[in-house]
Amino acid sequence: MSDLSVGAPVPVRRRQSFFRRNKLVITPLLFIAPAFAMFSLFVIYPIIQSIALSFTQWQGIGPKTFIGFENYRQLWHDPVFWKALVNNIYWLVLFLLAPVIGLFVALFLNQKVFGIRLVKSLFFFPFVVSQIVVGMIFTWFYDPSFGLIAAIIEPLGWTIPSILADENWATIGVIVAGLWPQTAYCMILYLTGLNSVNPEIVEAARLDGAKGWWLLVHIVLPQLRAATFIAIVVTIIGALRSFDLVAIMTEGGPYNSSNVLAYYMYDNAIFRYRVGYAAAIATVLFMIMNVYIAWFLMRLLKSEKGSH
Amino acid sequence: MFPRPIQDQSLLRQRLYKIALPISLIVWLLPMIAIVATAGRSLSDINYGNYWGVPTEWAFVANFTAVFDSSPILIYLMNSFIITVPAIIGALVLSTLAGAGLALYKFKFRFFIFALFIAGNFVPFQILMMPVRQLTLDLGIYDTYWGVILFQIAFQTGFCTFFMRNFIAELPFELVESARSEGVSEWKILIHVIVPLLRPALAALAVLQFTFIWNDFFWPLILIQSDELRPVTLGLTTLKGQFISSFNLLAAGSLIAALPPVMMFFAMQRHFIAGLTLGASKG
């Protein structure tokens, strides 16, 4: 209280010195504040809202009714939800081919020959193209009457089913389209990783008689660990996020046979006005993805601690 | 080097490799080659069912002109730019600040805040969908460019901050320390010492963000309703309905939509790859 009676200049000087004394704490907070505010408003807060929504019944407008775990109970008994979940598992498993194929493509291209730089860039091409375009291309490819696949194999006397209209094939067809850009992504990660493989260790192992598979598995792959880790993380996240291709290629059909959680959620929220139910699906998807996010963060924390 | 340099191997293997390379490239790019070929096919070929055979004539110019004449694709393209450019600038500014804040200072909860940005970057979009839609409605920016721009800035800031903080943490810290000991303010250190060193990182992020935001389909789908505000990814689905039996035009439209990020990639390849692989070179 006595501070107030001293007069105007003192508090000003005090505030300055307070800022100066604590500038190494205040500055970072000021730097982070705008990003953090935006991120909280558009990402963190909506996540909490969605989880809260999943306990309500809501049509998108009008009153929300709290119904506890009723949405989750219905999900448990919803065959489409289970179908979508199983399809997400298909996505996950088949998508993990992307790091594997990506590694082999990278090994194949990791040579110094004329024009290899251009070849590498062209191999990377699919990743740069929008999934919407990828989806359209593959939809033509698969068409039984005017698709390229039919055009190629019909002269050989085979026929193909209408892949995207066939319950048994639709999901596979969409996943193959997704694998194309994803493999390109993994390939580039491995090509960069191969650049930093220590040639002396490889040479030393060669002198000891190591070659081929053994050399790859025991000498080279351990040095590619960082690339493998990122490739697996982005592939898993990509598999769980799959939406664009499903939306453009099948809309989850036929008879929900190619539905995935992300699309089923969208479908419920936008076309069926079951926003609470959709939020419950999103929450389940979020919880699954949290496993990978936690895995990633734990590894990051470990490497951060290691570097200090 | 692994695998063994092809030059050290038998002549036969070298020849096989040189043959395998273009063949694998053609197989790999078959979808792209097909779409380019279709974009140059004449409508009469399509009508006669000649989808994949030798085209009777090339009609590239006619097809591309037809797409521009008969569809609002020019407006879609412009919308994509109107959304993409400010979103990139916003995300870069916010993440440079936040990345510097996280990399140059030690304070409590530093890792926690950093982790939040990273984790947010991995969340499934769907969990954000309804609340973000509602938020843009409440803010009066639903069905405007701003809704998508602000969301993209906020969301991409997560990834960009991760990238920036890692890049800044690798810079020589002595520069900051010596500036500080000379009494330079923290803000000036950022602008005059740090930012000039960030040029490669900013370039890498800008290129990468361009493809991410340009190619995004989900958020315009959720936040934009009017046809005249649609970016080109969304516009393509409209064209799909409009050109229902004119595959050549649809192919041309798809190529037009894919062109800006592809050109960006070829012009700025090094930066693009740096952006993609920064995470892989660490940890």
From TrEMBL, chain A:
Cellular component per GO, a single term: plasma membrane
Pfam families for this protein: BPD_transp_1
Location(s), subcellular: Cell membrane
Domain ABC transmembrane type-1: 84-298
Ranges in coiled-coil conformation: none
Transmembrane segments: 24-48, 89-110, 122-142, 148-165, 172-193, 213-240, 275-298
Any one of the GO BP annotations: transmembrane transport
Alphabetic keyword roster: Cell membrane, Membrane, Plasmid, Transmembrane, Transmembrane helix, Transport
Membrane topology, from the record: Multi-pass membrane protein
Superkingdom assignment: Bacteria
Predominant subcellular localization, coarse grouping: membrane
Gene3D superfamilies listed in its UniProt record: MetI-like
PROSITE patterns per UniProt: ABC_TM1
Similarity comment: Belongs to the binding-protein-dependent transport system permease family.
Protein's name in the database: ABC transporter permease protein
UniProtKB/TrEMBL annotation, chain B:
Cellular compartment(s): Cell inner membrane; Cell membrane
UniProt GO cellular component terms: plasma membrane
Keywords on record: Cell inner membrane, Cell membrane, Membrane, Plasmid, Transmembrane, Transmembrane helix, Transport
GO biological process, one term: transmembrane transport
UniProt topology in membrane: Multi-pass membrane protein
Ranges where the ABC transmembrane type-1 domain occurs: 77-268
Transmembrane parts of this sequence: 20-40, 73-104, 111-132, 144-168, 189-214, 243-266
Subunit structure and binding partners: The complex is composed of two ATP-binding proteins (UgpC), two transmembrane proteins (UgpA and UgpE) and a solute-binding protein (UgpB).
Described function: Part of the ABC transporter complex UgpBAEC involved in sn-glycerol-3-phosphate (G3P) import. Probably responsible for the translocation of the substrate across the membrane.
Record-given protein name: sn-glycerol-3-phosphate transport system permease protein UgpE
Gene that encodes the chain: ugpE
